[in-house]
Amino acid sequence: MARFEVNPDDTVILVVDPQLTFMPGGELAVPEGDRIVEPGRRFLERLEPVQAVVTQDWHPPGHVSFASSHPGKRPFETIDLYGHPQTLWPDHAVQGSETARIHPGLPLDRFVLILRKGFHRDRDSYSAFRENYGPDGKRIATGLAGYLREKGVERVVVWGLAFDYCVGWSALDARAEGFRVCIVADLTRAVDPGQFDACCRRYRDAGIELVCAEEVVLV
């Protein structure tokens, strides 16, 4: 059995975008996205001494990633944006909207930081660590890596939505920043479930560990 040891001194749990907009009934529902909420709550309770951070997509109206911002385009089409492929999405996670809220089944008081991302109108943001490429050709850092280093963090445990986008990009960037990283595979779901195995291979090749919730052990 795989085993990923964590302790309060050098580990953070990173919960990515557990928002109503990505749950059944939301504008960009991830299949079975709501099924991570209750086991995720129990996971946070079991590892209570370990600090936790949550991210929140927070798009302004007219965001560049919205298909509605590109006349003649439909959700899930791909365009070239600043020289990079950009998936166009339904309007979702709009600032201040009801569905932009973090799912109420998760305890907000458990999180030491709520990191909002995607609030720049001219660039998307999948990762908790860096925005996507913008018109300046750069990926702007969110500041999370520096924050975690100041906290003495060396290990990052990632789960949330969605496995093939924001969870994966966050884990890859965390690994690139030098953290030891695991994704809790049973506490995430994919926008495209058919890509799950391919994503697993990509993440493992980058040095990310994939584990089940029960394999994350407090020491």
Using the coordinates above, name the CATH class: Alpha Beta
Instruction: Please tell me the overall pLDDT.
Output: 97
Give the helix proportion (percent range).
10-25%
The CATH superfamily is: Isochorismatase-like
End-to-end gap:
17 Å
**What is the β-strand count?**
12
- Under CATH, the topology is which? Rossmann fold
Biggest sheet layout: 6 strands, parallel
What is the succession of H and E elements? Answer: EEHEEEEEEHEHEHEE
- State the secondary-structure class: alpha/beta
Beta-strand percentage range: 25-35%
Assign an overall shape. Answer: globular
Task: Give the neighbour order of strands across the main sheet.
Answer: 6-3-2-9-10-11
Helical segment count: 4
Tally of distinct domains: 1
Could you characterize what this model shows?
With 219 residues, the protein is α/β, with parallel strands linked by helices. The chain has helices at 37-46, 144-150, 163-176, 196-205; strands at residues 4-6, 11-16, 51-57, 78-81, 84-87, 111-117, 130-133, 139-141, 155-161, 180-189, 209-211, 216-218. It has one domain (4-60, 92-218): Isochorismatase-like (Rossmann fold). The chain contains 4 helices and 12 strands. A 6-stranded parallel sheet has the order 6-3-2-9-10-11, sandwiched between helices. A two-stranded parallel ribbon has the order 1-12. The longest helix has 14 residues, at 163-176. The two termini are 17 Å apart. The model has no long low-confidence stretch (mean pLDDT 97).
